[in-house]
Every structure is written in C-alpha cells, then in structure tokens.
Amino acid sequence: MGDVNQGLRVCLLSGGDSRRMGRDKALLPHPSGGVWLTALVDQLLPLGYPVQVLSRHREHAEVLGLRPGCSVLLEPPPWNGPLQALAKVLPPLPGEALLVLPVDMPRLRTAVFHQLIAAWNRAPEHAAVAHDGQRLQPLLAVIPSTSPFRSCLDQQLQRGELRWMDWLTRVPYRSVPLPAEALLNANCSADLSALEG
Hints:
Number of domains: 1
Mean pLDDT: 89
Shape: globular
Oligomer: single chain
CATH superfamily: Spore Coat Polysaccharide Biosynthesis Protein SpsA, Chain A
CATH architecture: Alpha-Beta Complex
Structural class: alpha/beta
Low-confidence stretches: none
CATH topology: Spore Coat Polysaccharide Biosynthesis Protein SpsA, Chain A
Helix content: 25-40%
Largest sheet: 7 strands, mixed
Strand order of the largest sheet: 3-2-1-4-6-5-7
Number of strands: 7
Distance between the termini: 30 Å
Number of helices: 7
Order of helices and strands: EHEHEHEHEEHHEH
C-alpha cells in the first residue's frame, strides 16, 4: 500500500502515569506477545515512516531495545498531558505531518493506520481524526505541521489551556470512520475485560 506523503512521521504517546489503571499500561502483556508498547511499535514499523515513542519512563526505552526505525524521546517535566506532549513532537516545518496515537489502544493494526493515512492524503490540509462510529478518538490522528495547527497549539498552551478537544475545535479536521473494535482503549482495570473479550 503506497502512502504518498514522504514528510510523515509517527509518534506513539506513552508518557502517561496510568493512575486509573494502577499500573503502567504500556507494559501490560499483549495477547500477540510482548507488551502493549512493543506490540504497537511492531504494527507501526511496517508503515515505513520514522517511529518515535514519547515517554517519561526510562523502562520504555529499555523494553524497546534497539528496534531499527524506532527511537525513544524521554519527555522532561513538567508533564501536563497529551496536548503539551504534542507540542514537543509536532514537526516544525511546513509540509510535514505527524501520525499520533496513544499507547492504550492495543488492538490497532497496520491496516488501520493505512486507512487513516489514506484518508488524510485525500485532504492533507485538514487533520484526519479517528472516529469509532460513536465518537471521535482524537488522540489517533494525522496532524499537519502547517498553520493553523502549530500556531493554535502554541497559543492555547501559552494560555495554560491543556485540553486536546479544545485545540481540535480550533483547527480544520475531518473525522475518519475506522473499525470500532480496533479503537478500544483501556483506562482502568475494568476496561481490560472488554479488550480481552
């Protein structure tokens, strides 16, 4: 499957503190082997784009080891959520874009990423944001680096506003229907049974 944009990068957000889960979600065992973090990276690498993992946890870099095509950026404090994390990794140059995703969607597969990238390629001046048929899944998206994406992001953070959805309402985006079962995520122990079912 040929994706047309050569300025695309990938960032897996893996720096949360997993308070509601009570343990590090990235290091939960994955049914296909390894842990959620390694399983997702192994689904991202076949896309052929540079993959970066953004995390505050040194253990994540150790678990990933030396995977060709994958790098780990250790996020310095303060840690104020995914929008601030996005500001650290959104490419600075016009004409580039970022496929961003959270570590707590362990059912994501390479084919789903291809679907999202293909939808973005049809309208690259908009962000392409995953939709599960019921609601947006805003942390799974392809985001251009051009204006107004970067400028709105910087302005919002300067005001101390940290909500991702607030930023998304200020930029042009299109929702992309994707298979709901692939977008299941887990925020607490009770959610794990749905993923295992």
